[in-house]
Amino acid sequence: MQSNFTKTGFPFEWKDIHNPDQAELEALAEMHQLPKAAVIDCMQSEHLPKYEKFENYHFIIVRFYDTECDNNSDTIQKLTRKVAIFYNDQFMLSIHRSESVFIRKVAEKYANNKHLLHPFDLSCKLIKNALETFEVPIEKMEHEIDLYESKIFLRKKAPDLLKHLYYIKRKSSVIKKLNTITGKVIENSYQLHKRNAFYEDLKDYHLHLETDTDDLHDNIHQLLNIYISLSSQKTNEVMRILTVFSAFFLPLTFIVGIYGMNFQWMPELQAQYGYPAVMGFMALVTLLIFQWFKRKNWL
After folding, report:
1. What's residue 175's pLDDT?
2. Distance separating alpha carbons of residues 86 and 2, to the nearest angstrom
3. What are the tens digits of pLDDT across the range 121-156?
C-alpha cells in the first residue's frame, strides 16, 4: 500500500509504502532509479540499522519497537521491525512491512512546517520517532525491575522469577545493542550534511535514550547478581545447618557402631551400668560439641 504525503504540505515529494511485494519494489527501483543492492536489503526483515551513500540517494535502515510482539520475545527480529529510508535533495521514500503509527504521526505533525525544508530534516524526525517507540518498553521493564527487586529482598515468593529476569535481561541487551548501532548510523550519515536544529534534537534524544538503556542494562545485571548471591547464601545456610547436625551425630554414630558389632568378648556388654554409662558419655560428647560450636560462633 502506498501513501503520498506530498499534498499534505511538505515542500518535497514523500512516498510511504508498507507491505510491498518484490514486484512492487522492483518497480519502485526502476521508477526512482534506486540501487538494486539497497532494494534487496529492504526485503530482509532481519537487517540491522545501517547507512549507505549512493550516487543519487542516501539510504538508511532504522528499527523500531513492535508493540504487537510477544511478551517472551527476546531477539532483534521478534522485538522490532525495520523501516528503510531513501532520500535525496527533492525526494523521500520510506518502506516498511506493516503500517507504522509513528510514521503517520510524523506526517501529521510536520505537515506545513516551514522549518522542515529538506528530506534530511524529515529523516531526522523519522529516526527520532522510531527511537521513541522504545520508551514505553523501557519504562515497563524498569517498573518490573523495581517490583522484582522488592520481592527478592523481602524474600517473597514469585513464580518463574528467574525466567522473568532472564527475559528482561535479553530485551535490555537487544535495545542497548540497537541503540548503539543506531548511534553509529546517525554519526556516519549526518556528518555529510550541515547540522541543524533537527539533527541536534535527534542527537540529544539519542543520548537520552542511551542513558536510559545503559541504566536499565546495569540495573538488571545487578539484580540478577543479587538474586544469584541470595540464592547461594540460602543454599549455604541450609548446608551449614546440615553440617552442624552431622557434626553432632557423627561421634554418636561412631560410639553406637562400636557397641553394635556384637562380638562375644566385649566386657562392657556385661557391665551392670554399661548402658547408662555409654548414654551419659554420649550426652557429654554432645555437650562438648555444643560448647565448642558456641565458642566458635557457629550456632
Report:
1. 92
2. 15
3. 889 999 999 999 999 999 999 999 998 888 888 777
Arithmetic mean of pLDDT over the chain: 84
Q: How far apart are CA 132 and CA 128, in angstroms?
A: 6
Low-confidence stretches of the chain (pLDDT beneath 50): none
Q: Do 206 and 286 have their domain in common?
A: no
Distance CA 268, CA 170 (A): 69
- 180 with 270, same domain? no
Are residues 225 and 245 both part of a single domain? Answer: no
CATH number at residue 228: 3.30.460.20
Q: Name the nearest CA neighbour of 254 among 246, 263, 242.
A: 246
Number of domains in the chain: 2
Whether the CB-CB separation of 216 and 175 falls below 8 Å is answered with: yes
Domain coverage including residue 248: 241-295
Same-domain check for residues 154 and 283: no
CA distance linking residue 273 with residue 167, whole number of Å: 68
CA distances from 186 to 21, 52, 127 (A): 29, 11, 9
Instruction: Give the angle 160-77-30 at the CA atoms, nearest 5°.
Output: 170
DSSP structural state of residue 73: -
Of 130, 146, 125, 21, the closest CA to residue 67 belongs to 130
